[in-house]
Amino acid sequence: MKFLLIVVFCKLGFSLAQEESYLDRYEGGEESAANDRAAADGGGDRGDRGDVSTSTPPMPVGKLFDVDRWEVYDILDLDSVSTEETEEGIRVHFRFNFHNTVEKHIPELCYMTLENITIFNSYLLDKQCLEEFESVSPQCRGFRCNIVRYFLEHGAQIYLDVMNAPSLKEGLEVVNREILAAFEKLDMCTCGRQFFKAAFKCAPYWHANALNTITDDDGDSMMNYYKLMWNIDVKSFSRVFDRILAGFCEESSHGMCINSIVNGLEKMLDLVNTTMEEYEDYDDGNRDFQKRQEKRCDALFGPIRAWTKDDRDLDYFEGEDQIELILNKTAAVSKAFYCKRGCRNDESRTAMYPCCWRKMLEDKKLFDNIVQAGESLYKVIPAMSSDFEWYFYELDSYFYRYTISREDLEERMNWTVPKKFRDAVMRTLHAAKYCDGKILRCSN
């Protein structure tokens, strides 16, 4: 989520800036080779001088994530017979086998009712889940059908547009546009919330035929699914998902809160690109030069410095000590980003702090539910191992796990999220609230 993306983008910029072969990777295709030959002749895309630009060019999204052209063709059917002429132009579809695999479940999702469902004519649904899905408001009962149809109609084109985007920022622009369209078309903020509430409610009892496929008919795997779902706090997980979705649906100047968040990430990418282009100069400069660079608002040298300043080796620590160190470092990065004097009112900071996002961060019930869900998951993990002694007639004495001692198990069952963890998480997610002096102004 957005609260950790500051750290992620800082690390991304830090890593890519040090990658010596970055430019070579970008220029690995036939088109780049042609440009190189043209540049050597004094022309081409490199300008009349024929010299190589020292600035780092944007990397196409597909290449950034090492997605080769054959991998795109493996998912999408780009032959002429698989494209469809629409008002917007040619629309691409998924490959025939994948498309048909999804499409064959549409009758079940769209037309199955409590009156005609049986164990023999259903695959994804069982009677209990179908009953929950049918209990939503009448205008939302078609959501489970609509979301699959929407995926088949638009998913392939969205994937292609993102992979073909000339840069990560332009890929985010595609995502931003498509999220708004999907949320509006599917009425995600009303029907989506009702659907996922129903899905969480029936999840612990789901026993459709698809479970056999997922577990490869393995009885132990099926039992692990039920063991997990019956022992974690499913209600808290449901409330977390619903409150986050409700927060994303809040109105903002960009349409919805989720669009404001993505817009902030687009601004962040400008900082990442600047940092990548100038990192070599920063790394080679003396400390006085680096300090001046770290004060800039249009780059991420300050947050990078905040991460590296604590040079303790994470691998040296383990357990809660390691988690505490990671959270302290991420909190330092967030503070350096949001609280740097002279940058608090910069557009890059306010864009990354929309008012609807602040409202979500101040939702105490949301974080209480996250803690409850996380604690329940942590406590059930040992039970997922089938590695235990089994003496039925002496159950009290001999039923225990090899992988955990009785003392460790008792300690785990009594464990709660330490207050210092929660404080450090909030200083990472909501660093703007903890800045010295005036609180950072949010953007509408």
List keywords for this structure.
444 residues; mainly alpha; two-stranded antiparallel ribbon; two-stranded antiparallel sheet; 6 strands; globular
Q: Would you give an account of this structure?
A:
With about 450 residues, the chain is mainly alpha-helical. The protein has 24 helices and six strands. The protein has helices at about 1-20, 20-25, 30-40, 60-65, 70-75, 95-105, 105-110, 125-135, 145-165, 170-185, 190-200, 210-215, 220-230, 235-250, 255-285, 285-295, 300-310, 320-340, 345-350, 355-360, 365-380, 395-400, 405-415, 420-430, and strands at about 75, 85, 90, 95, 250, 255. The strands form three sheets. A two-stranded antiparallel ribbon has the order 1-4. It has a two-stranded antiparallel ribbon with strand order 2-3. The longest helix is centred in the middle third of the chain and has 28 residues, at about 255-285. About 20% of the residues are buried. Residues about 1-5 and about 10-55 have low confidence and may be disordered.
Layout: helices, strands, pairs:
Elements lengths: L1 H17 L3 H5 L3 H11 L20 H4 L4 H7 E2 L6 E3 L2 E3 L1 E2 L1 H8 L2 H6 L15 H8 L8 H22 L3 H19 L1 H15 L7 H5 L4 H13 L2 H15 L2 E2 L2 E2 H28 L2 H8 L6 H9 L9 H20 L8 H5 L3 H7 L2 H17 L14 H4 L7 H8 L5 H11 L15
Antiparallel strand pairs: 1-4, 2-3, 5-6
Helix pairs in contact: 1-15, 1-18, 8-11, 9-10, 10-11, 10-15, 11-14, 14-20, 14-21, 16-17, 17-18, 18-24
